[in-house]
Design a protein that fits this description.
Length: 377
């Protein structure tokens, strides 16, 4: 990879990909300037409280935002959140309302034009939200070099990213840096574009396809391997939506490759040999009091006992969700309850096909089927 001429004082050097991406997004003025729907893929229906938060974001910030889907994890009050590739700051300003004045949201981006838009409206939003002091800040830097941008190790409860990781030429380094700045029990919750196989060099070198979030798309199976290498728990698929390329010239280059916009959650929790266990959701998380969709395999209804696989049991016990669940007492019975816990890897492309066959309304939020293993009380 050829190196560009610009570099940050801390030592990280732009690759040619970084230079091209900054130029591509710097020249965009509105979402309609994009040539495919990869970065504006439809997401699940947005809850009312999030819609209200988005309405308070300044129109220019929203118009200059090019993310895919909407990355809003649960249980955010008081959290310290980092947004990778924050762009014009739409998600940062929306999340700042949800974490409240005791929480904080940091956005990092490498594009000057996008950061300028984001920083312009800090005071506007704090006044709009009724906050006495800013709980949002923006940093110029690279998602492959978070520590060099001044972000401390083990300092964030949660990291989000919206259609940005695919733009990086070194995705393993992105995951490694995210793992480093997360606290123990922290989560990387991100939406991105994934391909049905490893892309050809022709596609990866196509500047427009890279800028449109397709040329740098990771084969979804490679995400599983990279996450394990870095230390994360196995990725949990939350949602998946098909991406269409309504541009004949670009489709000709892409050939038979298919793409999805998918949201995954990765946790920084201890490796363990936790066995399947029974848990009960207490119903205390804002916005999902009645039903909490953890991923496309588990949906927890309030006060209903569910048997989960060992991997999910460990995540719930060691993450910010620990106080929101009642666990089977240590040493107590943890036997079967009629329905075995769901485990295993989910292919996002197979999930999309399944949902298309099931038709509208067949899944929670129109995105992921709910296969919760409910127990009889």
């Amino acid at each position: 990879m050829a190196e560009g001429k610009s570099a940050r004082a801390a030592g990280f050097v732009d690759s040619s990909v970084h230079v091209d991406v900054k130029h591509y997004y710097g020249q965009l003025k509105k979402t309609s300037d994009l040539k495919t729907n990869a970065c504006v893929a439809p997401a699940q229906p947005v809850p009312a409280f999030i819609r209200q938060a988005l309405k308070k974001v300044h129109p220019e910030v929203t118009d200059r935002y090019y993310g895919c889907g909407l990355v809003v994890p649960e249980c955010l009050e008081g959290c310290r959140i980092l947004d990778l590739g924050s762009g014009s700051g739409r998600d940062c300003y929306m999340l700042s309302q949800l974490v409240g004045e005791k929480g904080h949201v940091t956005g990092i981006d490498m594009t000057d034009d996008q950061l300028q838009v984001a920083k312009t409206y800090v005071d506007y939003h704090m006044q709009e939200f009724g906050f006495k002091k800013p709980n949002v800040s923006f940093v110029q830097g690279y998602i492959e070099a978070l520590s060099e941008a001044g972000l401390e190790k083990s300092s964030f409860d949660l990291i989000i990213s919206n259609c940005v990781v695919n733009l990086s030429p070194d995705k393993r380094q992105v995951l490694a840096e995210a793992y480093s700045v997360l606290k123990d029990g922290g989560e990387l919750y991100f939406s991105d574009v994934y391909s049905s196989g490893r892309l050809t060099e022709e596609i990866k070198k196509h500047k427009v396809l890279w800028g449109e979030c397709l040329g740098g798309a990771l084969w979804w199976e490679d995400l599983l391997q990279l996450a394990e290498e870095v230390g994360f728990s196995p990725p949990r698929l939350v949602t998946a939506n098909v991406i269409t390329v309504d541009n004949k010239d670009l489709q000709d280059v892409l050939g038979n490759f298919k793409f999805v916009s998918a949201t995954y959650r990765l946790f920084k929790v201890p490796k363990s040999n936790t066995k399947p266990c029974q848990v009960m959701y207490n119903g205390d998380i804002t916005g999902v009091e009645d039903k909490f969709q953890f991923d496309c395999q588990y949906t927890f209804k309030a006060d209903e006992v569910v048997e989960v696989d060992g991997e999910v049991a460990s995540i719930l016990a060691h993450s910010r969700f620990a106080e929101d669940f009642t666990f089977q007492p240590p040493g107590g019975p943890c036997g079967p309850c009629g329905v075995k816990p769901t485990a295993g890897v989910v292919d996002p492309f197979e999930l999309v096909l399944k949902l298309e066959k099931q038709g509208p309304g067949s899944a929670t939020g129109g995105c992921c089927s709910t296969q919760s293993a409910s127990c009889c009380k």
